[in-house]
């Protein structure tokens, strides 16, 4: 039986694709290995969102090819989808270039590759009714999983290449999502992380153009089982007006809000294609906290956008000082060909502006760090469920997350205790803040084994 090694790069949506590809290849008589040296097939599931991600994808490709030059190697994912023609000419080492739309076509691609052919395959999306994929091995830590409810995006923010890569918004069928959710619950998943480019846009690609997200969320909450739902990524400009109240009334949905404000200066926001303002965003934050007092709010800020200057950045700092968000991530603008913002400045000016943006990033972190630290202090002395993710070898310690910590992007909870198991929830008392992490001890044992 042949073995496949999967290198997954990029976002959580890419991770779901990688998990799907592994299952499809297992159906084709492959076994998944975590050792590249023993693989017959290497798959590099790439990210193509920004320049640094593409550089990492190419570096990973050559590193893996060098580690096992005898294996067939397929470049898949977002970078393959967008730059197939260029990669076909420049990446002769690739056995195949495979896009990210109809993943079921991997069967035929692999068969051709092992028959000696070099394949360039960018299939279109399948009919929604046929897009029902299974996943066996999950690449998340035990106890949690991502559930993708849509592909692509119709927002067309001026800096973003996602619609160029993934296409326009394509909401999955509600019943397909519910089937996937039931499967995850039945296999013991405690935390389902809903993902999309914008969760609230779900259904707006339908005939009446209205969001169906709240209907979907209501159906998910009604499912039987001991699980929680975390919502990752909801645009502020179309934030569902009933969402905060719904979360306050339904404990299965964690009071965690991931809202990418991106900026606070009016001119920058308008150029980005955003319709909100600093004032409307502050009002949204206040409304959420009034409705859900225990709310944890995360956001991302884009720095170095072409129309940003010192005055515009000062608006960001003022916004953050007033918003007092729990978590803030930032990234610098990447000049992406084909986007509306691409022509706003040339490459030489972009490189100069990027250095300035890195300085902005340092200032942002210096401001936000103490805010996050102070916000974390409110958890000390209280009890929360912690999802245990991994054990610290040789010590009576485990690493986990409470409701205010999303996977991969936020701080963690360090739990001091014995007989803890990854994938279980444990009621813990928070006793200290350590940097961006919490320290805790079990108070009631495992709630969910």
Automatic annotation (TrEMBL):
UniProt subcellular location: Cytoplasm
Residues annotated as domain MTTase N-terminal: 2-115
Superkingdom as given in the UniProt entry: Bacteria
Residue ranges occupied by any Radical SAM core domain in the UniProt entry: 139-371
Any GO MF annotation of the entry: protein methylthiotransferase activity
CDD domains: Radical_SAM (cd01335)
Cofactor remark from the record: Binds 2 [4Fe-4S] clusters. One cluster is coordinated with 3 cysteines and an exchangeable S-adenosyl-L-methionine.
Gene3D superfamilies xrefs: Methylthiotransferase, N-terminal domain, Nucleic acid-binding proteins, tm_1862 like domain
Cofactor: [4Fe-4S] cluster
EC number(s) reported in the record: 2.8.4.4
Chief location: cytoplasm
Keywords: 4Fe-4S, Cytoplasm, Iron, Iron-sulfur, Metal-binding, Ribonucleoprotein, Ribosomal protein, S-adenosyl-L-methionine, Transferase
Binding site for [4Fe-4S] cluster 1: 11, 47, 78
Group of enzyme by EC: transferase
GO biological process, one term: tRNA modification
One of the record's GO cellular component terms: ribosome
Family under the similarity heading: Belongs to the methylthiotransferase family. RimO subfamily.
HAMAP family for the chain: MTTase_RimO
Protein name: Ribosomal protein uS12 methylthiotransferase RimO
Source organism of the structure: Sphaerochaeta globosa (strain ATCC BAA-1886 / DSM 22777 / Buddy) (Spirochaeta sp. (strain Buddy))
Gene that this polypeptide is encoded by: rimO
